[in-house]
Amino acid sequence: MEYALIINKDLTFSRRLRQSLAKVRQLKVIVVPTVVDAQLAIMRQAQDWVFIPFAEDVCKTAVSLYNLQPDTRLILITPPQKSRPLVPCADKIEGIIRQNWHDDELREMMETAVISNPFEVAVPSGNQVDTAILIAALQQVKVDKVVQTAVIARDGAYLAHWGQHTITQARYIVRLVGREWLSAKSQTRLQFMSQPGDADDLLLYTYRVTDHDYFIFTALPETPIAELRQRAAGLATLLSDLLKGNAAISIDDVMFSARGDNSYAVVWRAIRALPAKLHQPIQTAIERLATANACRIIHTDIQSTYVHLVISCPSGKGKRWVANLFKKGSETTIQQQSNVNTPLWDHGFYVTASKRPLTDLELRLFLKK
């Protein structure tokens, strides 16, 4: 069970948000009127999500809550306006939802929030390795009935995962293991985890790669330990070289599927003609989003009136998720870099499963709408 905290004095608003959250995720939600109440609630029970209202002192609130629990996801509730407000503490905020949200928007925001910060991807200290390369390394582990998911972490912070679990579940696994693992001296550890709604526990096999880095395999309780050890040994060698900068693995080694349901053609319109000086920053923002989310850009066409992409992402990422990630993420990046609130993109987008760019006819049909 995940825990969510809403900070708001408006009971009607809080009730509506609580009802929407119940449709989106399985959460235990509490509502408090003030930041002080929220701090006390977090001290009593760690929170997976904290929804905070936008105000002049929002950064003071965000920092105080972050200091109490750095691994919580702070979601900012903004006024019903088109553009996102600029806040100095953007690195503490992992999601934004407007006061006039729809349930689908809330769901997409929460899915995106657990994958990458909407402003900038924060990487824990130490040797930094692209998320896509980490996922490429984890993909060397065969995911089956023996190993369900492989997760890598650093100093209690989630880095990447690959397998059957969602990123929310993977981050929960890291938090569960990291509570005591950081102070442990052993090379490996076995423990069990109960999953909400499941009758069976999961076996967690944790393996230390460096003093700060480790990975976790999830498996069924009856899984032979010898099999886990064998698979862990191979991954440990690869990750050790990778973290030292010696591994001969690159983003091109990420095993993207050639199936059409993993590749998407996406196009969206600009509100007004994009100046030429923005084309390269937009492309850079899109490339960074792709790297942070283990996606590959197959085709990029940035014009004054639209952006047209073909993107391949790991299985399990739906087309609406992909389109929203790159459209919203690129706009937010440019707004932050330019220190402006001006929106770039018009409402809506067109996305379809495809390994090739849209034809001229398809583009014209969409752009005429």
Count of the domains: 3
Fourth CATH level, the homologous superfamily of the largest domain: Dynein light chain 2a, cytoplasmic
Judging by the overall fold, what is the CATH architecture of the largest domain?
2-Layer Sandwich
Indicate the mean pLDDT: 80
Sequence of strands across the biggest β-sheet: 2-1-3-4-5
Unreliable segments (pLDDT under 50, ≥5 consecutive)? 115-126, 250-261
Biggest sheet record: 5 strands, parallel
What is CATH's topology name of the largest domain? Beta-Lactamase
Walk me through the topology:
Elements (H helix, E strand, L loop, with lengths): L1 E6 L3 H14 L2 E6 L2 H10 L4 E5 L4 H11 L4 E6 L14 E6 L4 H11 L17 H8 L10 E6 L2 E7 L3 H15 L6 E7 L6 E8 L4 E7 L5 H19 L19 E7 L9 H14 L3 E7 L3 E7 L6 H20 L11 E4 L6 H9 L1
Parallel strand pairs: 1-2, 1-3, 3-4, 4-5
Antiparallel strand pairs: 6-7, 6-10, 8-9, 9-10, 11-13, 11-14, 12-13
Report on the structure:
The structure is a single chain. The chain is α/β, with parallel strands linked by helices and about 375 residues long. Helix content is about 35%, strand content about 25%. The protein has helices spanning about 10-25, 35-45, 60-70, 105-115, 130-140, 165-180, 225-245, 280-290, 320-340, 360-369, and strands at about 1-5, 25-30, 50-55, 75-80, 95-100, 150-155, 155-165, 190-195, 200-210, 215-220, 265-270, 295-300, 305-310, 350-355. Strands 2-1-3-4-5 form a five-stranded parallel beta sheet, with helices on both faces. Strands 7-6-10-9-8 form a five-stranded antiparallel beta sheet, sandwiched between helices. A four-stranded antiparallel beta sheet has the order 12-13-11-14, sandwiched between helices. Helix 1 (about 10-25) packs across helix 4 (about 105-115), helix 2 (about 35-45) packs parallel to helix 3 and helix 8 (about 280-290) crosses helix 9.
